[in-house]
Design a protein that fits this description.
Keywords: 4Fe-4S, Cytoplasm, Disulfide bond, Iron, Iron-sulfur, Metal-binding, Methyltransferase, rRNA processing, S-adenosyl-L-methionine, Transferase, tRNA processing. With about 375 residues, the protein is α/β, with parallel strands linked by helices. About 35% of the residues lie in helices and about 20% in strands. Helix 7 (about 225-230) runs parallel beside helix 9 and helix 10 (about 295-305) packs parallel to helix 11 (about 330-345).
Length: about 375
């Protein structure tokens, strides 16, 4: 049996754990036709099912009026099983930010966040239940890794969000999703095959997939260098976001423990390769933590590392987790950090801090349910 692909971390499922049921979104169009034939139906039904799931968001077999009534139940059982159920939605920002807590088929909990802005709608999705990267300031990292999500479990978060926008469940009238960020629970590149499969399903033209643009998708990583190189070989135009959080190895070894394996310069070199291959600017994610990584000299070092590179810094005021010693930087320190980066000619923005009232940091809502 072949081992894990480069950059893909091994995961041992708990004893007795069941795999997620096979779902349409796990399969390529050819595999869907084979599965439909195995269920005793004509292969063209696979395209009809894909149309219902990816384009119409019609999950109820009663809505599949182009499929014989007697065939709907068997096809739903074979290819569109229930993967996950909503535990609850919580909202803030005048209901323009909605966080969803999902319970998966095995009782595992994951989260997604739908954020609507005047000019766009963005979803932040999870790729793992929990996370094995052990970053001490992150609620998900504190919880540890439960398991990888299947491709379909990832895709379904987005499909449900798109249905919610279409049906006007988020204020502002019907809308279409414009951006997806893999910045929810988990390290996306540690679940490489399923995340890549999800990107393909989301960007394949309808009815084989959702038909979104790769340029509207951002994939975050703490810096799994072999997986970044592999990602660069895929021919994608997604944006890569590197969760750096410190420009020096001494501090980053503590904040992002995987840095003990791949150092800052190795991570950035891999990111520059991805930028060159994809034609996309890399987003450097940097959570500002009071008196930990927000000193002006660290901003200067970061500016020197990024000067002249195809990069944009996204400063993130830390969304504190309950009981944590970590908290957001003082406004004056944040402003000085921004000014120092700008002096180096490095583009920088401060992320809009949405969702603090609803346990907005990834993993907080799931932690309250445990």
């Amino acid at each position: 049996m072949p081992g894990p692909a480069p950059g893909e971390l091994t995961f041992v499922a708990p004893r007795g754990a069941k795999k997620p049921p096979r779902h349409l979104a796990d399969l390529s169009p050819a595999e869907r036709r084979e599965a439909v034939a195995a269920a005793g139906e004509k292969p063209f039904r696979a395209k009809q099912l894909s149309q219902h799931y990816f384009a119409r968001f019609a999950h109820d077999p009663a809505e599949w009026t182009d499929i014989p009534a007697a065939a709907r139940g068997p096809l739903a059982e074979a290819l569109l099983p229930d993967l996950m159920s909503v535990v609850r939605h919580i909202s803030c920002d005048d209901d323009m930010t909605r966080k969803t807590l999902w319970r998966l088929h095995d009782g595992t909990l994951v989260e997604s966040v739908l954020m609507r802005y005047p000019d766009r709608a963005t979803m932040c999705v999870s790729s793992q239940a929990g996370c094995g990267m052990n970053c001490p300031f992150c609620a998900t990292g504190q919880a540890g890794l439960d398991r990888n999500l299947s491709t379909a479990e990832i895709v379904h978060q987005i499909v449900d969000g798109m249905r919610s926008l279409r049906d006007g469940e988020v204020p502002g009238g019907p809308a279409r999703l414009s951006n997806i960020v893999f910045m929810g629970m988990g390290e996306p590149l540690a679940n490489y095959k399923r995340v890549l499969g999800a990107i393909r399903r989301l960007t394949d033209p309808a009815p084989d997939g959702v038909g979104l643009s790769q340029r509207g998708i951002t994939v975050s990583t703490v810096g799994l260098v072999p997986a970044i190189h592999r990602f660069a070989d895929e021919g994608l135009t997604c944006r890569l976001a590197v969760s750096l959080h410190a420009p020096d190895d001494e501090l980053r070894d503590t904040l992002v423990p995987v840095n003990t394996r791949w150092k800052v310069r190795e991570v950035l070199d891999a990111a520059w390769e991805y930028a060159a291959r994809s034609g996309r600017r890399v987003s450097i994610e940097y959570a500002l933590i009071r008196d930990i990584n927000d000193q002006a000299w660290r901003a200067d070092l970061l500016g020197r590392l990024l000067k002249g590179k195809r990069a944009h810094v996204n400063l993130i005021p830390l969304n504190p987790t309950p009981g944590s010693k970590w908290t957001a930087s003082r406004p004056e320190d944040e402003a000085e950090f921004v000014r120092t980066l700008q002096l180096h000619g490095v583009p920088v923005t401060v992320r809009d801090t949405r969702g603090q009232e609803i346990d907005g940091a990834c993993g907080q809502l799931a932690a309250t349910e445990r």
